[in-house]
């Protein structure tokens, strides 16, 4: 009689295919410690970037997803070969990141693209103003993660940039959704952020925690290394 062999299927580990300055891989342990428990059954992420938290939660089987993805090979190539994975555009909206000069860059492989595609099944990535696209009229509970461009830092992800006025609009808008579900935001430990937090979010029950993260991109070498950040939550 043939021996029965148990086949153990390894869990799929999903990883971002884009590398981003300010990405949340360094911050991941701090974010994971502060996830809602239990996790709500709907997740939305503003300012996706490389999607580090999305892919981490997808690997853990935490997400119930409702999107689809379209990623051009040219964007991936430019991202993986540009300087430090920086995404920056000029006023014409054209990418203007210098060549990374790293011949050992790990380009996206067929396997990584396939697993990323699997992770993004049943998801939708939308392009437009955050206030227009983030929330749908859904009756289920939800968890929203916000990772906007930081005041006092690099904001040229689009030709319009992201001004202090945009940050103010984001905080004001977030306050209006405070009771719609669980919300977590990462941001700079910056006077503008503290002022906006006290004005808009503290009065509706949000709390702010200071943490430290490492940043490797700065035109001034003295500005690289540990930097102060904050995590803001309503739970």
Structural write-up:
This protein has 235 residues and is an alpha/beta fold. It has a single domain, classed as Rossmann fold (3-Layer(aba) Sandwich), CATH 3.40.50. The chain is built from 7 helices and 5 strands, in the order αβααααβαβαββ. Strands 1-2-3-5-4 form a 5-stranded mixed beta sheet. Helix 6 runs parallel beside helix 7. The longest helix is centred in the last third of the chain and has 13 residues. The radius of gyration is 19 Å and the shape is globular. About 7% of the residues have low confidence.
- Overall CATH class: Alpha Beta
Mean pLDDT: 76
Give the count of structural domains.
1
Class from helix and strand fractions: alpha/beta
**Which residues sit in consecutive blocks of at least 5 with pLDDT less than 50?**
4-8, 66-71, 137-141
Radius of gyration: 19 Å
